[in-house]
């Protein structure tokens, strides 16, 4: 598939997916959904990729849904937004969460609507100091989607999540970091380099172990403490059977740098 | 076991547990007559083998059993269905008197879901999906799917599954009582086996009586069920294992059950 609305490449274990509709603030239309879906399928299939980095071209990260794609002319049939979520946004969020490797998001500018919630669905979020996050849905009569109403209360607590989603205020990257919505905010010009270096580092780490960590943390939102203890035991059993664990311990004993294969 | 099977793998008995693995990967473990007859035949053989205290039935890490063999079914007319030997195989499985534990990963659909419901205890991986999609083929479940499902999950969910052909996840199946535990797929068989081994250490006559009266609860009134329970309870008072169990408890030692 030749991509028009995204850029995609796998280099040195890092898959980089760049949203590339800069004139539309990288907002999603049907084509972009299809291309992102295809790229994620490739990441999943790839033997090489051990980390995924998502970012955007231009001044914005992603403005969510491209509203010019929506027919709201008076008298026209009302659009079925639920169907678009079922077909496009939910599968995207689910596949980011299910991807068995770390997913880094480098938020280079405004992340609005679904764009913000796609970022929050990634494992580690870095943002440029000038970037911002907006739950814009309330301003056009909609509900936060792409997992926003689930993720936000868990990231920032119920009170802040409610005000964020009802007021639709723009939250700066620094504020987002202070509130724990994202991992880190860095100077604009340092963002891509820092994201790249983090991705390259993660791509050399014990990928299976990282995938198990991701799975355990995700499950923790739904599990009871007892169930989570059982899950930790089970995932540790599997982690203990990986080659990387053996390599990690033996490198530690030999006082040398480990070489992980992600197996 | 001396037999060679086409559609299943049968393990050696280990710590009182025998494992049957459905093994038709090319057909998603579809339950053709051959496969069902092999399960029934193994269960029949081990019924009188004191070394076997519990049986685990499982599929692969990706699929338990995706249904009946549609091609085989399509070839049957009404008379053919009336004379279908599968009914007898299902009955043998249903009447197996020892604990049968299912370890389910991936799809357990149609006949696969019905096989799950023949098991006494079900452990499933979080990738498991359960459903009765027969309706999509213009048929209905034919191995207890409408009956055991209703008794297990209640009317509304049973109707939803059988009439719509929709699937439910392992979490939902646990919420509705179709299965008892959800684990990660890589550990499903291990967990089911550990449970089977634990049961295998219990006094076998008591286990058998308990299974029998528990299953009777499906088709008796509470009053009759309680009477049956009382009879079984009384019967156990005549076993050596009961005396051993109580003595070991009083003496704070491990019981040594002999099955007598």
Automatic annotation (TrEMBL), chain A:
Enzyme's top EC category: isomerase
E.C. numbers: 5.3.3.18
GO function terms (MF aspect): isomerase activity
Keywords: Isomerase
InterPro entries: Enoyl-CoA_hydra/iso, PaaB1
Ranges in coiled-coil conformation: none
Pfam annotation, one family: ECH_1
PANTHER family, per the entry: EG:BACN32G11.4 PROTEIN (PTHR43459:SF1), ENOYL-COA HYDRATASE (PTHR43459)
Annotated protein name in UniProt: 2-(1,2-epoxy-1,2-dihydrophenyl)acetyl-CoA isomerase PaaG
Source organism per UniProt: Marinobacterium weihaiense
TrEMBL record, chain B:
Family the UniProt entry places it in: Belongs to the enoyl-CoA hydratase/isomerase family.
Highest taxon, organism lineage: Bacteria
Top EC group: lyase
EC number(s) per entry: 4.2.1.17
Listed GO MF terms: enoyl-CoA hydratase activity
Protein name as it appears in the record: 2,3-dehydroadipyl-CoA hydratase
NCBIfam families found in the cross-reference section: PRK09674.1 (NF007239)
Keywords in alphabetical order: Lyase
InterPro entries: Enoyl-CoA_hyd/isom_CS, Enoyl-CoA_hydra/iso
């Amino acid at each position: 598939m030749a991509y028009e609305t995204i850029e995609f490449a796998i280099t040195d274990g890092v898959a980089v997916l760049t949203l590339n509709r800069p004139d539309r603030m990288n907002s999603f239309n049907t084509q972009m959904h299809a291309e992102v879906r295809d790229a994620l399928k490739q990441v999943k299939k790839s033997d090489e990729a051990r980390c995924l980095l998502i970012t955007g071209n231009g001044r914005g990260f992603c403005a969510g849904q491209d509203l010019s794609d929506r027919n709201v002319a008076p008298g026209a049939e009302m659009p079925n937004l639920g169907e678009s979520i079922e077909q496009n946004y939910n599968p995207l969020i689910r596949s980011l969460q299910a991807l068995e490797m770390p997913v880094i998001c480098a938020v280079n500018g405004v992340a609005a609507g679904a764009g913000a919630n796609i970022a929050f669905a990634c494992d580690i979020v870095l943002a440029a100091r000038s970037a911002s996050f907006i739950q814009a849905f309330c301003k056009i009569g909609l509900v936060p989607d792409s997992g926003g109403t689930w993720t936000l209360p868990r990231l920032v607590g119920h009170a802040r999540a409610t005000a964020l989603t009802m007021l639709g205020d723009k939250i700066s990257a620094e504020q987002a970091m202070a509130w724990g919505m994202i991992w880190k905010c860095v100077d604009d010009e340092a963002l891509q380099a820092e994201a790249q270096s983090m991705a390259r580092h993660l791509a050399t780490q014990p990928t299976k172990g990282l995938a198990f960590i991701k799975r355990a943390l995700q499950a923790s939102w739904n599990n009871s403490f007892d169930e989570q203890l059982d899950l930790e035991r089970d995932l540790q059993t599997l982690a203990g059977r990986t080659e990387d664990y053996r390599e990690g311990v033996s490198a530690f004993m030999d006082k040398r740098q480990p070489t992980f294969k992600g197996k | 076991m001396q037999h060679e099977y086409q559609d299943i793998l049968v393990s050696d008995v280990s710590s009182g547990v025998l494992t049957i693995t459905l093994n038709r990967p090319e057909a998603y473990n579809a339950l053709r007559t051959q496969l069902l007859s092999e399960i029934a035949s193994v269960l029949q053989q081990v019924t009188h083998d004191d070394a076997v205290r519990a049986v685990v039935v499982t599929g692969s890490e990706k699929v338990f059993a995706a249904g009946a063999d549609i091609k085989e079914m399509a070839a049957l007319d009404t008379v053919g269905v009336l004379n279908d030997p599968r009914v007898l195989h299902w009955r043998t499985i249903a009447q197996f008197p020892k604990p049968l534990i299912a370890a389910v990963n991936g799809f357990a659909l149609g006949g696969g879901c019905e096989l799950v419901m023949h098991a006494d205890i079900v452990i499933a991986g979080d990738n498991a999906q359960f459903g009765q999609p027969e309706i999509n083929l213009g048929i209905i479940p034919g191995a207890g799917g409408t009956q055991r499902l209703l008794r297990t999950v209640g009317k509304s969910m049973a109707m939803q599954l059988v009439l719509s052909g929709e699937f439910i996840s392992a979490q939902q199946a646990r919420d509705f009582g179709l299965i008892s535990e959800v684990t990660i797929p890589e550990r499903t068989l291990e967990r089911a086996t550990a449970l089977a081994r634990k049961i295998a250490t219990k006094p076998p006559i008591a286990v058998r009586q308990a299974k029998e009266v528990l299953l009777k609860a499906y088709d008796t009134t509470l009053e009759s069920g309680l009477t049956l329970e009382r009879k079984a309870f009384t019967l156990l008072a005549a076993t050596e294992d009961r005396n051993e169990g109580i003595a070991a408890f009083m003496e704070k030692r491990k019981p040594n059950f002999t099955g007598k």
